[in-house]
Fold each of these.
Amino acid sequence: MDLAALDVLIVDDHEAMRAMLRKVLERTGFGSVRDAANGEAALKLIAERAADLILVDQNMPGMSGAAFVARARESGSSARIVMITGDVRAEVGDADALLVKPVSPRDLLAAIEQVLR
């Protein structure tokens, strides 16, 4: 799979988490990495240009990650989605995979590989 051709969207209200995820993805060879600080901004981004892969935090102010995923699916998004959460009891819902914090680069890349198969 050509990682450089994939469009990735990171959705997290913590700037440091977005920066860490971006760094790992760019070092791995992902070409287009966009980010949004909340679900509303992310929905606008995917309306402008579809994403192939979305990494979304579950616990965000305003729209939760689960609500974002539901709205993205309702809008027709076929992106592969990895939900990131601090709650080990969380359910995947409409996401394709669940990743529990703290997130290591190895675990992140394994989850991405799993959903992109």
Note: The chain has a mean pLDDT of 95.
Amino acid sequence: MKTMKNITMVMVACLINVTIFAQEEPASVEKLVIHIDQVKPSMTSEYKTIAKELRDLLSQNAIADFSYSALTNDRNEFIMVSPVESMAELDKNPFGSLVAKIGEDKFQSLMDKMDATYNSHKTFIMNYHVDKSYLPDIPEDELYREWFFMNVDPADSKKLMAINNEWNALYVKHDLKFGYRFFSGGFGSDESTFVVMSWGKDASDFNAKMMERNELFGDEGSALWQKTLDIINNMDRTTGYSLPELSYIPPAGLVSED
């Protein structure tokens, strides 16, 4: 049961970190627990079957105190993103309510099967900056994702934040109808790493949006891009898809049975 133990240990450690800095965190920043499984290519289908079984167990047992969105990328990583609404949530096993319903043995068996499908895994915290994102609500039919990673010197983190504000202003100025979400590293990850996540219906739709954006931004956008590059130590891009069929979002108003 390595996967869930790892999540729990990181969440407990993060509780200490969040408690120390709670007074400094603005309300517009949401903390997310990110768990990534590096799945063996030959086991991808088996992994998806087990992940769906887990999702179905949560749904069948009306688990209301835990949710996650599932995604995958072109590195064959499968990603589970869970919101953290309060510090109290960081001090408990996220699957505790499910284990109480189905029993430790059944849950252990499922996790053992999942453990056999991946080579490595990791869990960490990311900060989602709602106020530094643009039109962050993602249409349900737009499942394609691009993640753009930027790493800067710690001393330049505030500069990168300020540059993102300039990008945001350009989006507003040109009244673009598509947006992005802006993230920064948290506990367990590099805090001087920043991520911009964008989306579309598919790769073709996404690329068309980026071409439209670049044409509208023109020289102003080119200058801002160079300003961005001037403080970035390294950057990376990966693409993938949201997996609603493997995600678990309990219905609004659902209350777990005792």
Note: The CA atoms of residues 145 and 199 lie 4 Å apart.
Amino acid sequence: MRIRFEVAGTPCEYHRDPLLGGAQLRIGPDVVALQSAIDPRTQVGFTLSRAWERSFDGHTIRIEKDRALILSGLRPQRYRVFVDGQLIVKKEGF
């Protein structure tokens, strides 16, 4: 899954590797790891939703991911990106 958006004119991108599960947030030239592919909690989890929150230039970026209860690895996941509490992107996919 790749989601592109802007925060205060700065291009940002959330990327999640569908095969290994690693996730990162790119804000301009900087890359922030949100979820490591080698962390066992990335591969095995019992929660249906996960959220990451980061600050950038006085703005709060929150990324939420929800997955289905049954066969969650085989079904599309729902992603939402909020900036300062406002929903700016909503997307489904792997």
Note: The first strand starts at residue 2 and ends at 7.
Amino acid sequence: MPRSRALRTIADMADDALDLAALIPEHFARYFAFFTPGHTQGIVPARVKELARLKIAALNQCDT
């Protein structure tokens, strides 16, 4: 597949994606109120927490 066609396909997919934050904003507000303190506070830096999350996802064969 030519690169320009692949880029158009990716752009089309992004246009068709659901904007869940717009559809259920109260859910996202509650999620980030829960997630943000645990991710940004504490002894372990957020960068290390994110790397651990990505490693765990890879070990479990999850797409992130």
Note: The chain has a mean pLDDT of 82.
